[in-house]
């Protein structure tokens, strides 16, 4: 796509060049740029073009001809906002095409207001009121420093102490770990024949990831302080099997494991026996299924059933999916179903209640959810403005921004650090908002070295402020062992043990980081469950938090999709976010002769957004490397976009993306044409574009080729999560012999 290079209000008269001369020059320039872009080289600075201009003026004067990039003119150099940190310079200027022209209309959001499922996090009851060993109570009070129970703990612990099976469903960050750990420890310490280490496992706890395994281990270990004869242990990928075997041989009484690693041991270790198992706990059941562990769970259930029938089974989950219900059907015996939803949620019709609950998710009451509709071209400036608004101009804000891929995280980290934060190499204070608090950016994704990841967690966790840019599970490359969760306490445990190898597969989903005030979803999640788990990183255990979902106008329908799962989001207007740019004059447009623009109101906001966009574009086009990064990030964005599950395709379909506009949100002045790959032409031709849409935009076709080329490079194709995996579901557990149960 040709960059929109508009006529300028303050440019010299058209006679500056002869018409023919100008045309020839334009063509030569365009060919040169095209060649450079397609070869991966940075485009030549358009020395003869004009720099950032008033958005309003752009809108007024831009003509279809100029939008096609055929109106480049030569102008004298002028002052511009430099992104390299060297301050304002006299330099030839690069024009930023209008951010506010040719955008799709932002639709009015007509979302149905739904009654959101709510949970009371804390109950007024103290742990003392439970029938627990006094030493266990004092350990909870003094070691864990907790006094009152959360609602899920209040409901679950007595039921489990009675010996019942349970399906526990409660919102993120509500204290589910202790809800099962306390009853397990209480019951095992009370056994009349005292447990011997060599007895092997009495309790088996399955968790989806290594980090959760470590976190649960950490909690159990603390609770066991007064009961030293009970030995906890953890098995997970990343540790040497040999040393795990040795530990199994010595004996582990409360065994916490990821499913994959336990199956490894079931198949290869003679020392693993389940004949004394009294507890089988499946924590984060939804996540276990999400990660594709259903076959492993089947193997484990079969192995345990073969050796032991008399046990208590517990399934815990933040979301109640069809898979979780099926797993509950086969693993729980006459379970008590515990769901900590408010009375407001009670429906008069029990049938409706069951089906609605299956599709609905409890969200912490202290969590405010928002959505903003932003045209593709404006996504980057809008995100930057929001970060500035919250983390620069407001105090004590800590934000996590979710992206759909590692490349996206790297790209945005780099561009923000170099243009917005106050680190070395970043713009000088003259260019940055004058106010307030320094911006600190951190990033975390699955392609980072483990040590760096660990230190990022420490830094972000201990910091009272900061912006963490991270990926979600969907974006990680490895398959089964890609971990969705990282709990900070587990990291601390790891750090203490100076063993970072465990965390090799950590992805940045499900962080348990304290005091996060904002969650921003820059890429929409692929399922309501994912949405819940992302926003669940804030407003944990009663704290207040907010979330923002950034959608394109064409994706507005997603709000209704969320509403159908009883998720309520309220709209923030893009202009209100961009308005923050008026707080600092560094975003003020300077006209020729260093005169400041006197625009006001929305015109001023648009001008300033354009200035910020120019800063980004200057940064991206400052070197071959940065252009290439931006292109990679764009490619990766499109690839991720293609992986939305089938049911969301009507909302998120790559063919509805305007490549030129999307490229703009990567600071690219031109949509990279060289993304299309000839090897996939065959596939592309299979899906002929609708002739009725022929004139709509040629970029759509290029886009299709881009996507196919990504698939042909061996990268994961889209739609598996919602489609294939969903269908795969089906447990085949060996029939368990009827036996006495603890009821
Ligand atoms: N009774 C309590 N009082 C105070 N803090 C608690 C209590 N119970 C748990 N917590 C703390 O709340 C935080 C969240 O607990 P936990 O990780 O068990 O929640 P969760 O429901 O498993 O969350 P998620 O579903 O997101 O994994 C932890 O830091 C934990 O230490």
UniProtKB/TrEMBL annotation:
UniProt domain Helicase C-terminal: residue ranges: 366-578
SMART domains, per database record: DEXDc (SM00487), DUF4217 (SM01178), HELICc (SM00490)
A Pfam family the protein falls into: CTE_SPB4
InterPro entries given in the database record: DEAD/DEAH_box_helicase_dom, Helicase_ATP-bd, Helicase_C-like, P-loop_NTPase, RNA-helicase_DEAD-box_CS, SPB4-like_CTE
Catalytic reactions on record: ATP + H2O = ADP + phosphate + H(+)
Positions of the Helicase ATP-binding domain: 157-338
Annotated keywords: ATP-binding, Helicase, Hydrolase, Nucleotide-binding, RNA-binding
EC numbers: 3.6.4.13
Single annotated GO MF: RNA helicase activity
Region named Disordered: 1-89, 713-743
Gene Ontology CC: nucleus
Positions with biased composition (Gly residues): 716-725
Gene3D superfamilies, A to Z: P-loop containing nucleotide triphosphate hydrolases (3.40.50.300)
Keyword ATP-binding tagged: yes
Plastid found in the keyword field: no
UniProt free text on domains: The Q motif is unique to and characteristic of the DEAD box family of RNA helicases and controls ATP binding and hydrolysis.
Functional summary from the UniProt entry: RNA helicase.
PANTHER family: RNA HELICASE (PTHR24031)
UniProt family annotation: Belongs to the DEAD box helicase family. DDX31/DBP7 subfamily.
The name this protein goes by in its record: ATP-dependent RNA helicase
Gene: Ddx31
